[in-house]
Design a protein that fits this description.
Layout lengths: L2 E9 L2 E9 L7 E4 L8 E2 L1 E6 L2 E6 L4 E8 L4 E8 L2 E8 L3 H12 L14 E9 L5 E9 L7 E7 L16 H11 L3 E5 L16 H15 L5 E11 L1 H11 L7 E4 L6 H15 L4 H19 L4 H11 L17 H12 L2 H8 L3 H4 L6 E6 L7 H11 L7 E5 L26 H13 L2
Parallel strand pairs: 12-13, 12-14, 14-15, 15-16, 16-17
Antiparallel strand pairs: 1-2, 1-9, 2-3, 3-4, 5-6, 6-7, 7-8, 8-9, 10-11, 11-13
Length: 451
């Protein structure tokens, strides 16, 4: 095992090269590198290699890996599980495919991504937040300002789930950089930032929940109010996916949020959202409705136990006692191949994390009911991750006031607000478009009409 193992996450035509570095010492350290995203090493935990099965997890990424050695191909063939999603991932000591993967990435066109010099000023700023135990967190970000003297209205931009940088970089796309560029030209300032423990920001992403991210966003909001070029009475929030939910948390606890732009935001309880998401993604990938529903029912048993508010130790015991039994397993899927401790590790890593427990238990309705500012509720009708009809209706129905609030469900748009025919997650990286012009036009029109 000693040395460097090369792998690549393939999504359509897009490839993310990965490296796992195995040191000579039996106990590690073992480190993961994703050099297309960051030069920093990501520590790995729960490392094991037994009977040709290689397993590890990354608490920082909320991810786990399981691969089986194939003698003929001289590689580990396996699956990376992150936030309940399973992605094929193989590792070998041969980096030839990895080199071609890097070349593949370099050829992907992202024509919308803005590049300096910009026609408007930008400032690199550090905002301060705190952990629940009072430790300081330094959040690095970019403030984009329109031309002129101001004071300007401003949007604090909040990224979706998973460790995200300030541009919400995903598969080569940088939608937040595009939004900031567009909004600056329309007279709106924006502040986008690396999440805690990501990019240049300090702190730990591992173990953080949506409530922690809301504390960070609220702290940034407060500090921006004193900026001389910003209008303190016209500072709002823009959130994508989980970021929209975080925006609701912030606005529910302060009355000075001027507006919210919700992009594919959850409006229903986390458990229900994951049920719908799991079924839609599975059936879109070719699984029968019967098998997809069987998987949903199986996972729901775990989630319903989590909703009762049980702690991580009790949840782990429940998974061990009630899920490990072979006769309880779904008859299809990757998990049907697992046994005993492997099965426990698989489900425990998928569901028994602070973020996942919090997400499953949380109902955003409770915070949307306390939001009194105007809200633009955007979604795409091909979104397989956050169902458009269920979630937009739930958000709108919860809001106490509908003044200047608008629902817009865009036709043939996916979760990333790209034009699509299928909405498939595997299509995200293959599409040249990062963010549709229709999305930008709808947002610009709504912002112009705000009082």
């Amino acid at each position: 095992m000693e040395g460097v193992w090369y792998g690549w996450l393939t999504v359509g035509e897009n490839v993310l090269p990965l490296e796992v570095h195995c040191m000579q010492e039996e106990e590690g350290p073992f480190e993961l590198y994703s050099k297309q995203q960051t030069s920093k090493a990501i520590p790995l935990q729960s490392w094991s290699i037994e009977k040709g099965v290689w397993q590890w997890e990354s608490k920082k990424l909320g991810a786990s890996y399981r691969g089986e050695w194939t003698e003929q191909e001289q590689k580990f063939k396996g699956v990376l599980t992150q936030r309940g999603m399973n992605m094929p991932l193989d590792f070998s000591k041969n980096n030839e495919r990895n080199v071609s993967a890097l070349e593949s990435v370099s050829k992907i066109k992202r024509p919308q991504t803005p590049h300096p010099p910009f026609e408007y000023p930008t400032e690199e700023r550090v905002m301060l937040s705190k952990t629940t135990t009072g430790e300081e967190i330094r959040l690095h970000g970019t403030l984009s300002l329109p031309k002129g003297k101001g004071p300007f209205p401003c949007l604090v931009m909040i990224t979706g789930s998973g460790p995200q940088d300030r541009n919400e970089t995903i598969m080569g796309h940088q939608p937040f950089a595009i939004l900031a560029d567009t909004l600056a030209k329309l007279g709106w300032a924006t502040f986008r930032y690396d999440e805690r423990g990501v990019g240049e920001s300090s702190g730990e992403f591992e173990g953080a929940t949506s409530r922690d991210f809301a504390e960070d966003a609220s702290a940034i909001f407060s500090q921006l109010k004193s900026h001389p070029q910003l209008d303190p009475n016209r500072i709002g929030l823009l959130g994508h996916s989980e970021g929209s939910m975080v925006a609701a948390m912030v606005a529910a606890n302060r009355q000075d949020v001027s507006c919210i732009v919700s992009m594919a935001g959850p409006g229903i309880r986390g458990l229900e959202l994951l049920q719908k998401q799991s079924f839609d993604i599975a059936t879109s990938s070719g699984k029968s409705k019967e098998d997809a529903q069987q998987d949903v029912d199986f996972n729901t048993r775990i989630m319903e136990y989590i909703v009762q508010g049980n702690d991580s130790v009790r949840i782990a015991k429940f998974i061990k006692d009630n899920v490990v039994s072979p006769d309880q397993l779904p008859s299809s899927g990757e998990d049907s191949k697992l046994e005993g401790s492997e099965l426990f590790d698989y489900y425990n890593a998928s569901f028994n994390t602070p973020w996942m427990r919090s997400f499953i238990q949380y109902n955003p309705n409770q915070d949307w009911k306390k939001v009194h500012c105007p809200v633009l509720i955007l979604n795409g009708d091909k979104d397989l991750q956050v169902d458009a009809n269920m979630n937009t209706r739930a958000i709108y129905g919860a809001l106490p006031s509908h003044a200047h609030t608008q629902i817009m469900i865009l036709s043939n748009h996916n979760h990333l607000f790209q034009y699509t025919e299928s909405g498939s997650l595997s299509e995200y990286g293959t599409l040249e478009e990062s963010l549709s012009l229709e999305t930008l036009e709808v947002m610009a029109d709504w912002l112009r009409k705000l009082p």
